[in-house]
Amino acid sequence: MSVLKKKTLWAGAIAALMAATSALALDPGYRAPDADHTLVIDTTKGQVIVELYPAMAPLSAERLITLTRQKFYDGLIFHRVIEDFMAQTGDPQGTGMGGSTLPDVKGEFTMRHDASFPLTVAVRPKGSLIGFVGALPVQSQVNELMPLSNDGKVMAWGLYCQGVLGMARDNSPDWPTASSS
C-alpha cells in the first residue's frame, strides 16, 4: 500500500472519530450518564460535568469519588492551564507538587477485556478498533485476537483528547505517583 494511501486512510479514520466526538458533544442528552460516577466541577467559567469510567480506570475513579465526597477539591484552583492542551487542578498547594494524604494510585493506562466489553466502534483501522465506552474515546486490539491470547482477552486504552479527564503523574510509567490531580 502506498504511503499516500495509508495517510489518506488514517486521515479518514481520524476525521470519522472527530466527527463522532463532535456529534456526541453537541447533543448532551444522547444518553443518561451514570449518576454514581458523575462529578460536577463548579468554576468561574461555568460548570464542568465529568463522567468517570471505572471499567477503564477503577482506582482513579474511586479516588476522585472519595476525594470529592471528602470535599478535598472544594476551593482549589486550576494551577496549570495550557490553552488547547490541558487544565490541571487537585493540588492544595497550587503548585502541582502537592496532593492528598491518601496513597498514590498506580497507573491505569491499559486494560484487558473480553468480547463483552461495551465498546461502540466508530472506525476499524487495520489491527485495532477505535470507538467509545459511554462517551470515553477508547482504542482496542481487534476481538479476533482473543482466541490467540492466553486469557481470551485483548488490550484496550483510553484516548486523550479534548474533554477527557486524567490523573497527573511524574515520568515513571507505572509507578504510583497520582494522588489527587
Write the layout of secondary structure elements.
Blueprint: H1 3-26, E1 38-43, E2 46-51, H2 58-69, E3 80-82, E4 86-88, E5 111-113, E6 120-123, E7 128-133, E8 136-141, E9 154-158
Antiparallel strand pairs: 1-2, 3-4, 5-9, 6-7, 7-8, 8-9
Q: Would you list the SSEs in sequence order as H and E?
A: HEEHEEEEEEE
- CA distance, first residue to last residue: 44 Å
Shape: globular
Estimate the mean pLDDT confidence.
80
State Rg.
18 Å
* Major β-sheet annotation: 5 strands, antiparallel
Strand content: 15-25%
Structural class computed from helices and strand pairing? alpha+beta
Helix count from the secondary structure assignment? 2
**Strand adjacency order, main sheet:** 5-9-8-7-6
Question: What do these coordinates show?
Answer:
There is one protein chain. The chain is an alpha+beta fold and 181 residues long. Helix content is 20%, strand content 23%. The protein has helices spanning 3-26, 58-69; strands at residues 38-43, 46-51, 80-82, 86-88, 111-113, 120-123, 128-133, 136-141, 154-158. A 5-stranded antiparallel β-sheet has the order 5-9-8-7-6, with helices on one face. It is globular.
